[in-house]
Design brief:
- By secondary structure, the protein is an alpha+beta fold.
- 26% of the residues lie in helices and 35% in strands.
- The strands form 4 sheets. Strands 7, 8, 9, 10, 11, 12, 13, 14 and 15 form a 9-stranded antiparallel sheet that branches. A 6-stranded mixed sheet has the order 2-3-1-4-5-6, with helices on both faces. A 6-stranded antiparallel beta barrel has the order 21-22-27-24-23-28.
Length: 527
Amino acid sequence: MKTSTKTQSNTRIPIITILGHVDHGKTTILDKIRNANVQLKEVGGITQKISAFTIEHEHFGDSKNFSKLTFIDTPGHEAFDLMRKRGGDIADIVLLIVAADDGLKPQTLESIEIIKASRAKPIVVVNKVDLPNLDIEKIKRELANNEILVEGMGGDIPLVQVSGKTGKGIPELLDTIALLIDVEGIRNPDELPDRSTGRAFVLESVKDNSKGNVSTVIATGGELKVGDWLVYGLKGETYIEKLKGFMSETGEKIDSLKAGYGGKIIGVSNLLELGAVVLSSETNDKQLAKNIVTKDEEIRTEVEAEEETPDAWFAEMFGGEEEVDEPVQKLNIIVKSSSEGSLQAILKSLEKVDVDGFSVNVIDSGVGDVWMRDVEMARVTKSIILAFEVQVDNLAAAEARSSKILIRQYDIIYKLVDEVNDVLTAMSTPKETEEDLGDAEIKEIFVLSDGKKVLGGRVSNGLIKRGEKCYVVRGDDIVAEGRIVSLKHGKEDIKETQKGNDFGAIIEPTSANAEVGDKLFCFKIVK
């Protein structure tokens, strides 16, 4: 590990973000660090919201410059890449979690890209080392191939082996975090505008039935205190209101958030936007409010410019007004979610769902339970309602039943997206499909006096039926097709014939190309 002569400052406690692929054990490791059991509380054992908590640990005692650390837990599914970025952007250290038995996965690679673009110092944490027959060296090579050079592989990035299940290696991980902080230092707290007392970054926002609007934040400068004025921007407007309260990740009431601490702001009139910066002030300062909104818009413009892909640029420059051969057909939906972060993740995932020209049209979306207003909008717009981790009001549910409005409730985002994909697949299924009835081998061909061909055959499988359609197939090629207009057994007219029976069939419009040895496939059209 490289050394540094930076002067250590403890005006802000360090912030550590944990990134990695789903099911690689991020939350399990944090559970061991803070002696919690969050993993079992998460639906399906999958983190679906960003959380932030501060710990004081024996491994950060008097011998260390820091006795406290703030951890940010981020979801690992691909739908949450924006949430992971929010955590990575403000961290001093990033823990990249890689499962020893699984190696680098898609979300691991996305996390690596976040690390590369971040100022945070990385530590690779190889989890599940309690499992047998592991190849840690292979993981190191995979990391090197993605420009993450760990110690011993030509780089200075620490690699720690742990077991989130047994706790093995957790003390060594905490020591490594402490050593990296000692050597590298941490970034200075955010500089505060004049007349501001604190600054925080919004990680997540939810509507709680009992507490109202609740926003998870990290204080990045100064100190936000109950009773101060909270200054924030929302959709181009400025807002100033009293800070009514804070609480920790465990639900305890706290009076303030100092730089580096994570917690939740409660009692705000509006749902704070994800990724937004909020300020605190001891005075009701409207000029300060105007400045923060202007600055916030500048930051958002920069981020949007950075995230614009070459494909998006070409589409904008050269898209023109080309005519589309087939119009895109839409499934109208209304999305309600328990949090702003989950809502954005759902909408981002649904944008990618496209099945043979069928895609999703989001009529409306928001945070909170499903109410009568949502059902009324669904009826007018012929939409279905997707409810993620929220309740459905009793009156709204009754109205939905009477109006035949479909409301689907979910607690795992993957299931929501998969079910929407299934619906689009069903919508894209052709209105008419072919249902196989049977097949036969053509044994003889007779030509009648009027020139029509009679195909003499024996049924190999299923049945051959008069009035249904058929193909005459030679090898992989269809040489004739039509409808069976006449079917006989000897001289007797029959409606159908089963496996093993001989028959004579006339096909219209023509079977002129048929030859002995060809196959006859009979099918019916199902709508």
